Fold this protein.
Amino acid sequence: MPRTGRPTPPLVLSDEERATLVRWSRRAKSAQVLAMRAKIILACAEGTSNTDVATALGVHLSTVGKWRRRFLAERLDGLIDEQRPGRPPSISLDRVEEVVVATLEQTPRNATHWSRTSMAQRSGLSKSTIGRIWRDFGLKPHRADTFKLSTDPLFIEKVVDVVGLYHNPPERAVVLCVDEKSQIQALDRSQPVLPMMPGMPERRTHDYARNGITSLFAAFNVADGTVISQLHRQHRAAEFQKFLVAIDKTVPAELDVHLICDNYGTHKTPAIRAWLARHPRFHMHFTPTGSSWINQVERWFGFLSEQKIRRGVHKSVQALEADIRAWIADWNSNPRPFIWTKTAEEIVKPRV
């Protein structure tokens, strides 16, 4: 005879409770933690089993059981935070919701975002209470991240093309990620840098003297990590063509050359197109607009900036260029290719 286990207690909602739960679950900017708990209870109230609720909402079975029990024991108050030993909560659920909603959907009159002080003044609660509410709901008004969505109509095709070169490079060919790190400044601090000492970091003045700029043209070999490079004082199609000539001389003549580039204008001028037509072993592959992250040379530029340029002190462009050349020579003595793991399908798949 099959084992049935303990029967699940029925969950019945009052009209007021249902209205509140629906409001929490549908609020577009509501804290997602509370919204998910409300959806769990609404689904359970329909007589759905815990297993089916967990499957439908994509949560663990134990999560459904936990919030069903909490709601049966404490009703709406049970969906907020775990009860802790000590003094019972001094603010109501409605006031907590008011703070959360105001944080997500409103801005203060004379600022772009809330601080604990401004929210405390608005709500009449203490700054420490505001801090606890924000921590409980994962709210950080002082922080902001950046993003950019590509508007390239050929985004998918270009991603498939470039990522295909990373995962399945053509035979008898080299794949080079090409770009320019333009206007690298030779900066000299107004006073000598004070070296690091025990208990004290390296210190430098906030002001500096600009001693000129240079531009680095680089081609990162995705197979072995080696880099072909040139430095130029200007950043035009003429310099890019000179760099193509350098690549042509460096790569063995029997190999095709696949270049992954961005959509910068100097890569597409009539002179560049004419040069490419005269060198049919060169094949251009363009990254989607606004998607420089897909070009591996950008990560290599990041290493260069972190290890040599950002904290460097250079009294002339010549000194800056000498440091860059020395760093690249050291890199090429022990090159490290990057391992590309994402497939094109994973990149273009919409997130839900």
Q: What stands out?
A: The chain has a mean pLDDT of 86. The beta strands are 173-189, 208-221, 227-232, 256-261, 282-286. The chain has two domains: 15-83+90-136, 155-193+206-348.
